[in-house]
Design brief:
Elements (H helix, E strand, L loop, with lengths): L4 E12 L2 E12 L3 E6 L5 H8 L7 E6 L2 E2 L4 H7 E4 L11 H9 L7 H10 L13 H13 L5 E5 L7 H18 L2 E6 L2 H4 L5 E6 L2 E7 H7 E7 L13 E7 L2 E7 L3 H8 L5 E5 L3 H11 L1
Parallel strand pairs: 3-8, 3-9, 6-7, 7-8
Antiparallel strand pairs: 1-2, 1-4, 4-5, 9-10, 11-13, 11-14, 12-13
């Protein structure tokens, strides 16, 4: 079924006892996008992914992947997607070559030539035991195993957690290269916001089990701005603007981060009678901190 969304949820909810972990989630991931699913640790990202893949029972609501119900179509979904979990575990006594041979048996669509090409690009030695690989190389092997049968959708759940800065960058550069070559849909869960900014074109922000924002990255960046208002003397800490996410007073300046920036925002800022107004662009990490703090 060729739908415009590869992932759809409506009212998706998960409770553990009295604790609400995912709260009536409504999410749509466009086909062909690189979707960054952002949130602090404990925001509900991994729980959502596990429900999407029927690895965890949902309390209520609807979830679909590739147009199929996550529960009724679980087997078909797993055949058509690639999944890299946080701290992916593999049989570490196997060599890379043996692991590739082992996994190949589960997927009729496995592409030997493509797997060999990826192995060469990622510089994974076939005769090396997995336990002897660095954590970065193990993460790259997990990506190779998820990609070798050319899945329609690739789900990455905190794939760089626990890796050092250099290895994380190498891993993400490998992902970027594969994305550019294949043009497939990527659903990328992470709390390392600054590292996914150059990968993603869509962003969803989770906080305390709720989806608090979902839009194309460029839209998010264009409508979320920091306004620096200068005053003759120190302003009050209670300045208000439409869509205010975060405010901070530094000396005679008020730093106001707003959502939905536009002419109305500017008019409201001028009404506060500052001596000067400066509008600043924000990177994704600054925006995420403002949204998460507001939530």
């Amino acid at each position: 079924m060729n739908t415009p969304y590869v992932i759809e949820t409506n009212g998706l909810t998960k409770r553990f006892g009295r604790k609400m972990v995912v709260d009536h989630l409504k999410l749509q991931v466009p086909r062909g996008s690189v979707f960054a699913f952002l949130g602090r640790n404990g925001a509900g990202k991994t729980t959502t992914i596990r429900m999407l893949l029927d690895l965890l029972d949902r309390t209520s609501g609807i979830s679909k992947v590739l147009g199929l119900d996550s529960v009724k179509g679980a087997r078909e979904i797993r055949r058509r997607i690639g999944y890299v979990a946080q701290n992916e575990e593999m049989y570490d006594w196997m060599t890379v070559k043996e692991m590739l041979w082992f996994c190949k048996g589960f997927y009729p669509g496995w592409d030997d030539s493509y797997a060999a090409e990826m192995q060469a690009k990622l510089e994974l030695p076939g005769d090396q035991k997995i336990r002897a690989l660095s954590r970065g190389k193990q993460a790259q092997l997990a990506l190779l195993l998820a990609m070798a049968y050319r899945p329609e959708l690739l789900i990455l759940d905190e794939p760089t957690a626990g890796l050092d800065v250099v290895v994380r960058r190498e891993f993400l550069e490998g992902v970027i290269e594969l994305i550019q070559e294949e043009g497939r849909t990527i659903f990328f869960s992470s709390h390392l916001v600054h590292e996914v900014e150059r990968v993603a074109d869509w962003v969803g922000i989770m906080e305390a089990g709720k989806l608090i924002y979902c839009a194309p990255l460029e839209q998010l960046k264009s409508e979320t701005r920091r306004m620096v208002l200068s005053f003759p003397s120190a302003p009050a800490n209670t300045l208000k603007l439409p869509g205010l996410l975060h405010s901070e007073v530094v000396g005679k300046q008020a730093l106001l981060t707003v959502r939905g920036f536009g002419d109305k925002t500017l008019a409201a800022a001028h009404a506060l009678n500052p001596s000067h107004i400066e509008v600043e662009d924000l990177n994704l990490e600054d925006i995420f901190v403002a949204f998460a703090g507001k939530a």
